Amino acid sequence: MPAFPAMARRLSDADLAAFVTDGFIAIENAIPASLAAEMRAILWPMTGCDPDDPTTWTRPVVRIGDLAGGPFAAAMDTPVLRDAFDRLVGPGRWLRRGSLGTFPIRFPSAEDPGDAGWHIDPSFGFEQPDFMAWRVNVVSRGRTLLMLVLISDVGRDDAPTRIRVGSHRDVARCLAPAGEAGLTLRELVEIDFGGASRRDTTLATGPAGTVYLCHPFLVHAAQPHRGARPRFLAQPALLPAAPLRLDRPAGEQSPVEAAIRRALETND
Is residue 146 included in any domain, yes or no? Predict the structure, then answer.
C-alpha cells in the first residue's frame, strides 16, 4: 500500500473505491499550511507550555476543547474539503461545521499517555457518564465521517494515529445484528471489533494541513510520542444532515453507505 501520497485536489473514482476498501483517504494540503500555523499560534498558550522550552512539556498529552470561529471554522470550509464531503457523503447529506472539535496535543514523553487503546468514536448515548458505555449503530447515528486534521507536521515518531486498514467492515458486521440500539464501545472492544486485530496497521502521517477522512467505523488508536516536537491534531466529526440509508439504489449510495453495504454482503 502506498505511503500516503498527496491526493489530487478533487477525489477521483479510484480514491472513492479505496475509501470503501480501506476506510480512509488522506488529502494533503486540504488546509493551507498558513492556516495550520495560525491555529498552532492560538493553541500553544492554551497548553500552558512554552514552545521554546521543552522543560515545560511535562505531560504526555494536553487536551483542549472544541474551538469555534476564526481559523478553526475556516479550516473546515476549504473548497477541497467541501468537495470531498460531497463525494464521500453526498451533496446535502452533511452539516457544515464552524469549529474543529477537540485537540489532543501530544508531547515527547517516555510516560504512558493512558489513552492509547484501539477504539472507534461512538456517536450517541452521550448521556452516559462512562465513555465505554457510549454507543454506535449500523447506520452510524450521529456521525458520518471521522476526521484527523494534522495541524503540525507528523512523522512516524510524532505519535501518528494508528489505523487498522479495512477494520470499518469488521465493525459494520458486528453492528448489523444489534439493530437501532447498536453496541457500546465496551461491547465492541470485548469482541475485538469483529476481528480487527488481524488487519494491517498504518500510520496517519503527513505535513501540516493534511486531513484524513475516515469511515466512522474505522478502528484507530493513539500512541506515545517518540519524536522531538509536539504533535498538534484535531479530530472533528462530520455530522449528518439526514441518517445514512443502506437501502439506496447502488447508483445513489455514498461511499460511506457503500462500505457498510459491502461489509454486510461479503466477508472480506
Answer: yes
DSSP string, 22-61: HSEEEETTSS-HHHHHHHHHHHHHHHT--TT-GGG--SSE
Helix or strand holding residue 135 (H, E): strand 135-136
33: Cβ contacts below 8 Å, ≥ 6 apart: 207, 208, 209
pLDDT in tens, the chain (268 residues): 333 334 446 899 999 999 999 999 999 999 999 999 999 999 999 999 999 999 999 999 999 999 999 999 999 999 999 999 999 999 999 999 999 999 999 999 989 899 999 999 999 999 999 999 999 999 999 999 999 999 999 999 999 999 999 999 999 999 999 999 999 999 999 999 999 999 999 999 999 999 999 999 999 999 999 999 999 999 999 999 999 999 999 889 999 999 999 999 988 8
Quick one: DSSP state of residue 149? E
Range of the domain at 249: 28-265
Domain total of the chain = 1
Residue 20 lies in a domain: no
> What is the rounded distance in angstroms from the CA atom of residue 208 to the CA atom of residue 193?
31
3-state SS of 98-109 is: CECCCEEEECCC
The domain spanning residue 155 has which CATH number?
2.60.120.620
Residue type, 46: M
Let me know if residue 90 belongs to a domain.
yes
Ramachandran category for residue 241: left, alpha or beta (phi over 0 → left; psi -120 to 50 → alpha): alpha
Would you state the cell numbers that stand for residue 116, as one nine-digit string?
A: 492509547
| Position 14 in a domain | no
**Apex 221 CA angle, 25 and 195, nearest 5:** 85
